[in-house]
Design a protein that fits this description.
By secondary structure, the protein is mainly α. The protein folds into 2 domains: 9-92, Rna Polymerase Sigma Factor, Chain: A (Orthogonal Bundle); 110-210, Orthogonal Bundle (Arc Repressor Mutant, subunit A). Helix content is 68%, strand content 0%.
Length: 218
């Protein structure tokens, strides 16, 4: 989904050493990713932007303590998620951090639907309905795995569940989407891998729906 999933090691070391230009480059790299993720949790762009600003200030203050780039990505999403849900909880006067009451809008976008041919609309609607049947946590796990290309260990850390539970969460979500796919009429002639990938905006998710999800070795 993004051109670069990781920060250049030299840029990372420069930032840790106090280079504000390197810090700005990292901010520019991750801002759209965090903003995109935040928009799936809320439509309140002010809270999204406030959360991004807050966690990047904390990151700058604590940058020297971080040992590696990979640690940073997980840290950033964990911090942003916690901060945004906290602000949403304060606004709604209810606890969204410890209960699965938060929204997560992972769906087939209007732009992606327009890319598909008219005869695919029925199939796309079936996929959209299936996506809406997923729990917020299932949609969130799907987002991190197939749109952010995160490993199961990273997803487990962000969602604060075990790796085994993450595999189960993902497998159940894929089962729902796969059942919806196989229930579609004229699937072989209409919804090929390529068109499914266009509809979902993720080739990896399309392959997972058509194939077999990975089995955890734990």
């Amino acid at each position: 989904m993004y051109e670069s999933q990781y920060i250049d090691p030299a840029l990372w070391e420069a930032c840790k050493a106090g280079d504000k230009g390197a810090y700005a480059d990292i901010y520019k790299l991750y801002y759209p990713r965090l903003y995109n993720y935040g928009c799936k949790l809320t439509e309140n762009v002010v809270l999204i932007e406030d959360s991004i600003q807050e966690i990047f200030v904390l990151f700058w203050m604590n940058r020297e303590r971080m040992a590696a780039v990979r640690e940073f990505r997980s840290y950033l999403f964990v911090s942003f998620r916690h901060c945004l849900l906290r602000l949403l909880s304060q606004r709604k006067q209810e606890d969204l951090l410890n209960e699965e009451q938060y929204p997560f809008a992972l769906e087939i976008s209007t732009e992606q639907q327009q890319l598909a041919r008219e005869e695919q609309h029925e199939q796309l609607q079936a996929l959209k309905n299936a996506m809406e049947r997923l729990t917020p946590r299932q949609r969130e796990a799907i987002f991190f795995r197939f749109y952010e290309n995160m490993e199961y260990e990273e997803i487990a850390g962000i969602l604060q569940i075990s790796v085994k539970a993450t595999y189960k969460l993902m497998a159940r979500a894929i089962d729902v989407l796969r059942d919806a796919y196989h229930a579609m009429p004229l699937v072989p002639a209409v919804m090929t891998l390529a068109t499914l990938a266009v509809a979902l905006g993720s080739l990896q998710l399309s392959i997972a729906i058509l194939g077999t999800p990975p089995v955890p070795n734990i």
